[in-house]
Amino acid sequence: DITLSRSEEDSCDIDHFFPHILKSSEFKNINGIWNLVIACKACNRGIDGKFERIPELQFLERLNTRNNFYIESHHPLRETIINQTGRTDKDRRNYLQNFYNNALEVIPIKWKPKEVYEGSF
């Protein structure tokens, strides 16, 4: 389990799916909610953590699924994610895929965690 308590060993971090360093390469809205994910400490800042690498493609699909969940559930973040990534599912998928392809041109190093658990998204 992952907890939000800072005092717990298994606490989580909020991480950028696409690394924050891309902001210096004129990638827009890198701090948008659409790009923020929950990560365990090992993935975010551990020895084999993601740091300034691009997650493998399978994780982009999970990000898209998560974002669509917020939109379809009429979560308060719905309009923000729509405004940041696109009105339709196809628009959002294209936005993420284009962002992914462009990010790999700047940072051509992919990353995946040592362990992958079944996700909610």
TrEMBL record:
Entry protein name: Uncharacterized protein
Naturally occurring in which organism (per UniProt): marine metagenome
